[in-house]
Write a structure and sequence with these properties.
Elements lengths: L1 E2 H7 L5 E6 L7 E2 L1 E3 H5 E4 H40 L16 H15 E13 L14 H13 E2 H8 L4 H19 L3 H7 E6 H12 E2 H25 L15 H18 E10 L25 H12 L10 E6 L6 H11 L11 E8 L4 H13 L9 H12 L4 E8 L4 H7 L11 E6 L2 H7 L5 E2 L5 H13 L9 H14 L3 H10 L6 H8 L15 H8 L3 H9 L11 H10 L11 H14 L4 E2 L5 E2 L2 H11 L3 E4 L14 E4 L7 H7 L7 E4 L7 H9 L9 E3 L13 H7 L7 E3 L20 E3 L21 E3 L20 E3 L21 E3 L5
Parallel strand pairs: 1-7, 5-8, 6-10, 11-14, 11-15, 12-13, 13-14, 18-19, 19-20, 20-21, 21-22, 22-23, 23-24, 24-25, 25-26
Antiparallel strand pairs: 16-17
Helix pairs in contact: 1-3, 1-6, 1-7, 3-4, 3-5, 3-6, 3-9, 3-10, 3-11, 4-7, 4-11, 5-10, 5-23, 6-7, 6-10, 7-11, 8-9, 9-11, 12-13, 14-15, 14-16, 18-19, 18-20, 19-21, 20-22, 23-26, 24-25, 27-28, 28-29
Length: 850
């Protein structure tokens, strides 16, 4: 909001006044965010307030990029006009669609919403933080990080210049943004208190959700402003570079309507006003400070294999695995491990799965496989997962359950197998009877371990007595806690008082390993006894045992996260339970959503890597044997609770009716051709920022064209990922697809892996915000356009296993490029001669060439 581009553009216009008011209101709301975050988990009203505020911030975020983009676009057009000579005829840029009046209305709407939110503050009894400098935001609150980023965009030179360049109406926008910022600062005063209370107060949680939505709206608005300013600048630069000796290609016309922007600011302010009016009723307190615990160094990360109190459990399972005794008439012994979430079922299964081969001279099993079942209950899908795991192959064309089971039966014939079916939720007796048919061909002595929380499932599936895990002892809890809190340093080297307080803390964990480990990670290398006492004396421990399904220990670990990690963690709720996340992909997604704080001397990729290490060390992530990241089910529950309606995962077991206008990030599982109509309905959500297809079936060319044309209305998309399984049918893309996405000017992450694209059209190179472009396994892709250098912010380009024949020299103008992947590009025989100009290139992957 305060950037020079926005300020200069809106100066003297009505927009300026609106933005000023908006900023003031956001600062007001920000004062209670810490208290709101704290209270939302127990107070539904506070949580609802927070959600309203969040939505308003999103609206403001959407608005500012528009202003910024129009500012830069206008500036570039002006520069082009000054340099245009009469001797040459140059094609005009298409007219701007920036409507100042609409911008004014949007600002007024945001302010109105903010006012409504702020009016509720007193009713929620939210506590404001102590007065500080306007931009000195609370370290702990989730939304404070959003506000900090939003204010930096509002104050950016692009947005300021752009708004002030809009003559009369710009003043109104500037005023609206100023008011918006003031209201957000007001809300920010109680955010720490709200965050603390939300877990026990449903009203506070609802308040926070509303506030979040308002912030999203503000973000969308500001990004539009910034983007329009940048777009204009790029057009002018292109015109100057060509010096009118060449025909200038058209950029897409500006969609920026100043009048609509004003209306949006007005609406956001109105919403914020409503939210802030609820503050007093929620009794949110200003001045609640949250000091995040220090960052954890990489050298002290704790290995997941370090478990305590499970020696007897391990030996009991090992004994069953090595026994050749036949159970009744069954060839296969099914061993159920049962226990509550977080007690260590998966950890124990991993331990015996890995160590069984070391117990005897010869490997006791011919085939070993690990399958994470989660809530899957379809016989075909489960059989497919087992077949993939035991054969270590994803290549197949079978679509019938009978055929697939027959293939599995043939593969297992005469082999002694060990399968682990981890985290079973919904498999009933009938499903199990059908699923186990192929196992009858396996050799005697074969074993299956299942892990589940459900004792009924264990009784129906298991054919030996269940092995029920108990809580670990206080002494084992202390050893586990010490391992995570003190690392390799003996506790005796730390102040005696820490052990006294620490032993009291672990008693509150009641022997649950996940809770113990989480708090150990939280307090790692923290030497201040006062910080330990704050954990011990927190009122979160009084949370009802099954309230919101959130463990108090996990909530405390989240509450004391640094604010920049809170948004990153909450974003991960877009991934389903038990999903393995590729670390580099996650970092690029965070980057696309502006969740990484730039560091002067570090590339964003390195910053993201540090975020991941920190979350791993605090036990929010688990690193798999293949280097992927997973979240425990209870940790995933926490992430979903924090993100609220903002993030949503849908698959064929869930109704698309769950998606609302407040959904900003959407992932799809098992996306099939029959979901096209659902996607079309989903595209009615105009504020979606992320559309992430995690698994797709076969979709025809016509169906893809239909689905992509729906994307034109989703103007706030930052992430569009629709890859295809490279071993199945590939993506049939037509030029209609690129016509559809060419107008998505805020897009930063684009993945069309496995598509039948033959060339990258010029229109794709108008997406000047793009950071990540993935065209992996595009077997018909032969060339890139020379205009690839328009993608000035591109950092990651993957062309692996494509038919690319030539890399244009203009790619060397992409000075932000960090990674270039050309693995398996057999038609590519030479790299650009001036590739050394890519001074920031860290990874150049070119293996597999002829």
């Amino acid at each position: 909001m305060d950037s020079w581009e926005v300020v200069d553009f809106i100066r003297g216009k009505k927009i300026e006044e609106g933005l000023r008011k908006l900023k003031t209101m956001l600062l007001t709301a920000n004062q209670v965010l810490n208290d709101t975050e704290r209270k939302q988990i127990t107070d539904g009203a506070v949580r609802e307030w927070l959600q309203d505020h969040k939505d308003t911030i999103y609206d403001a975020e959407d608005l500012v990029p528009e202003i910024n983009d129009e500012a830069l676009r206008s500036k570039m057009e002006a520069n082009q006009s000054r340099r245009r000579k009469m001797l040459f005829k140059v094609r005009n840029f298409l007219p701007s669609r920036f409507d100042v009046k609409q911008v004014e209305e949007r600002i007024e709407n945001i302010i109105s919403t903010l006012q409504f939110i702020l009016d509720q503050k007193d009713g929620l009894r939210l506590v404001s933080k102590r007065p500080t400098m306007a931009l000195e935001l609370v370290a702990g609150a989730f939304l404070s990080a959003s506000l900090e980023l939003l204010f930096s965009k509002m104050d950016s030179r692009e947005v300021v210049d752009f708004i002030r360049g809009k003559k009369i109406r710009g003043k109104k926008i500037e005023e609206g943004l100023r008011k918006l910022k003031t209201m957000l600062l007001t809300a920010n005063k109680v955010l720490n208190d709200a965050e603390r209370k939300q877990i026990t107060d449903g009203a506070v949680r609802e308040w926070l959700q509303e506030l979040k939505n308002a912030i999203y709206d503000a973000e969308d608005l500001v990004y539009e402003m910034k983007n329009e300013a940048l777009r204009s600048k790029l057009e002018a630069n292109q015109s100057r570079r060509r010096k009118m000796l060449f025909k200038v290609r058209n950029f897409l016309p500006s969609r920026f309507d100043v009048k609509k922007v004003e209306e949006r600011i007005k609406n956001i302010i109105s919403t914020l006003q409503f939210i802030l009016e609820q503050n007093d009723g929620l009794r949110l307190i200003e001045g609640v400070e949250t000091r995040p615990f220090r960052r954890i160094s990489e050298a002290t990360l704790v290995k997941e294999s370090d478990i305590y109190g499970r020696d007897a459990d391990k030996e009991a399972i090992m004994k069953l695995l090595l026994s050749d005794h036949q159970v009744g008439g069954d060839k296969i012994c099914v061993i159920p491990i049962v226990g509550m979430g977080g007690i260590g079922k998966t950890t124990l299964a991993q331990l015996v799965y890995r160590d069984i081969d070391n117990k005897v001279m010869e490997k006791p099993f011919d085939v070993k496989a690990w399958i994470t079942v989660s809530d899957e209950s379809d016989v075909f899908t489960l059989t497919k997962m087992i077949y993939q795991a035991v054969t270590e192959s994803e290549k197949w064309s079978i679509t019938e359950t009978f055929q697939l089971q027959h293939k599995l039966e043939q593969f297992l014939d005469g082999k002694k197998i060990l399968l682990v079916l981890d985290d079973i939720w919904n498999v009933n007796y009938q499903t199990w009877c059908a699923l186990k048919i192929p196992f009858d061909s396996a050799a005697n002595g074969s074993k299956i371990i299942i892990t589940t929380r459900n004792e009924n499932i264990a009784a129906k599936i298991g054919n030996v007595p269940k092995h029920e895990l108990q809580m670990i002892s206080d002494e084992d809890s202390w050893r586990l806690f010490s391992k995570h809190a003190f690392g390799s340093v003996e506790p005796i080297a730390y102040p005696d008082l820490l052990e006294v307080i620490g032993r009291k803390i672990i008693k509150k964990c009641k022997g649950l390993p996940l809770a113990v480990k989480s708090l150990g990670g939280l307090l790692h290398s923290e030497l201040d006894p006062k910080a330990w006492e704050n954990i011990l004396e927190s009122d979160i421990w009084e949370l009802p045992q099954h309230e919101n399904n959130i463990l108090p220990a996990l909530w405390l670990s989240y509450y004391y996260l640094p604010q920049h990690l809170k948004r990153c963690f909450a974003y991960c709720s877009i991934f389903p339970k038990d999903y393995t996340i590729e670390k580099g992909k996650l970092i690029r997604l965070w980057m696309a959503e502006d969740l990484l704080q730039p560091h002067r001397n570090k590339p964003l990729e390195e910053v993201g890597n540090e975020y991941v290490k920190d979350l791993v060390s605090r036990s929010f992530f688990h690193v798999s044997s293949f280097g992927g990241l997973t979240m425990h089910d209870l940790v995933n529950d926490l992430a979903q609770f924090i993100s609220g309606e903002s993030c949503l995962t849908l698959d064929d077991n869930y109704s698309w009716g769950l998606m609302t206008k407040k959904t900003r990030h959407l992932s799809l599982l098992r996306y099939q051709s029959y979901d096209i109509k659902k996607l079309r309905a989903g595209c009615e959500n105009k504020v979606l920022r992320t559309l992430l297809v995690l698994d797709a079936g076969f979709i025809s060319k016509e169906q893809y064209d239909i689905s992509f044309t729906q994307l034109q209305s989703m103007q706030y998309l930052r992430v569009l990922s629709m890859p295809r399984n490279t071993f199945r049918h590939r993506n049939p893309l037509s030029t209609k697809v690129f016509d559809s996405i060419g107008s998505l000017t805020l897009l930063r992450y684009l993945d069309f892996s496995g598509s039948e694209i033959k060339e990258v059209p010029d229109i794709l190179c108008s997406l000047h915000n793009l950071q990540t472009l993935i065209l992996y396994f595009c077997l018909e892709l032969t060339q890139l356009p020379d205009t690839i250098d328009n993608l000035k912010h591109l950092r990651y380009l993957d062309l692996s296993y494509s038919a690319i024949e030539r890399i244009p020299d203009t790619i060397c103008n992409l000075h932000d490029l960090h990674t270039l992947k050309l693995n398996g590009c057999k038609e590519l025989t030479v790299l650009p001669s001036n590739i050394t100009m890519l001074s920031n290139l860290q990874h150049l992957n070119i293996w597999g060439q002829v």
